[in-house]
Amino acid sequence: MLNSRCIKILELLSKVDKTYSVDYIANKFNVSNRMIRYDIDSINDYLRKHNINEIEKKPNSPIKLNITEKEKEEIEELIKNINIQTYILSNSERCGLLLYELLSLNNECTYSYLQDKLGVSKSTIVSDLKKAKEWLKQYNLNIVKSSNKGILV
User: Fold this and answer.
1) 3-state DSSP assignment of residue 26
2) For the chain, what is the mean pLDDT?
3) Can you tell me whether residue 81 is helix, strand or coil?
């Protein structure tokens, strides 16, 4: 499963036949080198599942994706067809979808409804609701939870 940064890294590496340093990519996405290495592991798992050559990574060396033109086309097609089963929502994306669900429903919704809709655990929903509450405060709105009825804005 890939998140938006992994998809952007894969696009970067698959578009141009070029090597990039982990430092360059980390600076480009404003994250640590370690995070980029984790992302590369995730990307390689994804590529392996689709029988595409993995990103070459060696200690203290630039990274490169050695792929054929056919594999480039396959990657492009895979990226176009990414769906909720192959994409990991970020915290802010989840919070936005959670707010959308809460604000677009005319009545209360339940934790289980939100869990199914977002594909996450109840503890993740609870955490995201805290962030959503903070965001709603600036608009003088509040989230109300009822043990029998569910969640309502």
Assistant:
1) helix
2) 87
3) coil
